[in-house]
Specification:
Largest sheet: none
Mean pLDDT: 80
Structural class: mainly alpha
Low-confidence stretches: none
Number of helices: 13
Number of strands: 0
Shape: globular
Radius of gyration: 24 Å
Order of helices and strands: HHHHHHHHHHHHH
Length: about 325
């Protein structure tokens, strides 16, 4: 196990280096000048060139990347070109909001997808199966921004049950935080549930007709015991895999929902940084998302050992 974790840490480091290099080169090669954005279109060219020299933009890209990488290895991700704040501090402040939204949306998705996908698989070709797949297809086809706007119109403006946007810290006011969390979490969760339902159904169907399930039923075991101990447990590995992938995707893929609900997460931070050509902030946000993918993948791999003792690392 220790050797496995060391290997994964090494490969994660290589992945982070590759991601940082690609992102650094892409954002510096994209047309646009952050200095001109800061000073405005009417800024004097001599002043622009002076700030270019002060920020080191006149040096080769590889030299700029080496300097940034050396600082990053010492925990310094740089400072925002626009606000002047520390990138690490800004990303750290936005991370709790994104994590809370991601975890809440995943809980909503699992509450819907696990029972609906399982029941659908246990009754293939039935009305329940067709109904679950019908609503799952609708959920996959609906854009999340449209669903979010509809929720705001219905539950905020028409009924007045929940706030339309904003964010509150759970440490300051838990109830207010929960009220602001419900609509964006349900918006993301319903779309994710539509995807997971189909995977759960497929995983359960694949296990249902295997020999060990037939044997359990032939021995006269109760159907509830067969489903929980022989079907769901063996179908858990592909389900855990897709859940981990969805969680990692949500950490960096809820930008539109965060914008609609004015949710101060990493998505909005990265989007604003891209618009303003804030290179260090874009780099920091992308690196954190890449690290999240790597960490989630390690957690999923370790979960396999618990679900299937035959898995060895």
């Amino acid at each position: 196990m220790a050797n496995f974790l060391l290997r994964r840490m090494f490969t994660t480091l290589l992945v982070m280096l590759g991601v940082s290099f690609v992102v650094f080169m892409i954002i510096h090669l994209v047309p646009g000048d952050p200095v001109r954005v800061m000073l405005g279109l009417q800024a004097d060219q001599a002043k622009i060139e002076k700030i270019h020299r002060q920020m080191g933009f006149d040096r080769p890209l590889l030299v700029q990347y080496a300097d940034w990488l050396w600082s990053a290895l010492h925990g310094d991700l740089g400072q925002s070109f626009i606000t002047g704040e520390s990138v690490a501090q800004a990303v750290g402040q936005r991370l709790p909001a994104t994590l809370s939204l991601t975890l809440a949306a995943l809980v909503v998705a699992l509450i819907i997808s696990l029972p609906s996908g399982t029941i659908s698989a246990l009754n293939p070709g039935s009305l329940i199966d067709y109904t679950a797949m019908f609503f799952s297809q609708i959920g996959v086809s609906i854009p999340n921004f449209w669903l979010g706007i509809m929720f705001i119109l219905i539950f905020s403006l028409a009924l007045g049950w929940l706030p339309p946007s904003g964010y509150a810290s759970p440490m300051d006011d838990f109830w207010e935080w929960l009220q602001h969390l419900i609509l964006p979490a349900v918006t993301v969760g319903l779309i994710t549930a539509s995807i997971l339902t189909r995977f759960v159904r497929s995983a359960v169907l694949e296990v249902m007709y295997q020999n060990h399930v037939r044997t359990a039923r032939a021995k006269g075991l109760a159907e509830r015991y067969v489903v929980t101990r022989h079907i769901l447990k063996n179908a858990a590995i592909p389900i855990v895999t897709i859940v981990g992938m969805q969680m990692a995707s949500l950490l960096g893929g809820v930008i539109i929902v965060e914008v609609i609900f004015a949710w101060p997460g990493l998505g909005r931070l990265a989007l604003d940084a891209v618009v303003r050509r804030d290179y260090p902030m874009v780099q920091g946000a992308v690196l954190l998302v890449a690290l999240s993918f790597a960490v989630v993948n390690v957690i999923v791999d370790l979960t396999y050992i618990y679900l299937d003792p035959r898995v060895k690392y």
